[in-house]
Design a protein that fits this description.
Length: about 260
Amino acid sequence: MPRRSRGLLAFLAVGLLAGCGSSAAPSTPAATATAVPLSGSLTVLAAASLTEAFNDAEPTLQAANPGFAATFSFAGSQQLVTNVINGAPADVLATADQTTMEKLVTAGLVGTPVTFTRNRLEIAVAPANPRGIHTLADLARSDIAVVLAAPAVPAGNFAKQVLAKANVTVTPKSLELDVKTVLEKVESGDADAAIVYATDVAAAAGLVTGVVIPDAQNIVATYPIAVVKATLNAAAAAAFVTEAVSGLIQKALLKRGFLPP
C-alpha cells in the first residue's frame, strides 16, 4: 500500500522559502490526453490542503491501474519547493499557488505547470461559533486569538490579502508552516479563529465551523501541477497530471468542494 506523509522528506531540513503567493490565475495549457496508464510507483509532493482529495482518489487510481502505487508527501507549498530545489526524489508537484511553482519553472526543475483546481478562503472557528465571529473585522478584536499561516505559505499570503481588502489588521497568536497546522490550532482550542481554505473547513466538519468570507474580500487560489523533470517515471507522472486535470483525481477534488480549473 502507498505511504502517506504530511511532512517533508526526513533527510531535508525544514525551512521557509522567501516569497509570497499570488491569486492571479496562470495561463493554463490544455491537458494533453494520454493513453499511457498509471504504472509503477510515483512520489507526489502536494500542498497540505490537497491531503483528503488526493488520498480519496488513490484507491480508485489503484483499482483502475493495477500495480500502480503512489507515495504522497503533503506540506506547505513553499516547503515542497525547497525539497525539489534540494534534490529530493519526486515525480509530480502540486502547489496551492503559482508563485511557489514558478520558482521551479525558472530553475528549470519542472515541466510546464497546468492549472488543475481552485479554492476559496474561509474563517474557521470553534463549533457553533461561541465567540460570535461573523466577519473579518471580528478577527481584530482584542479578545480573539487568531492563527494564520506564515506569509511565505500560500494560505498565509492569501490571508494577508483578504485582510488588506477588508482593511483589517490582525496580530496573530502564531504563524504556521502549512494550512493544516493552522486549522489544528482551532480544533484543539489553542486559537479562536483562523483563515484557511474552504475545503479545509469542510474536511474538518464537526471539529470547526466555517464563516464565509464575502466574494468582494475573498481570494480564489489557483493550484498548478507539474511533472518534475528529474522523474524516473515520466509517462506515469504525465498520466497522473492528466488525472488531476480531468480524470479520477479531478472528481475527488470536486467532491471535496474544490472549484474546477
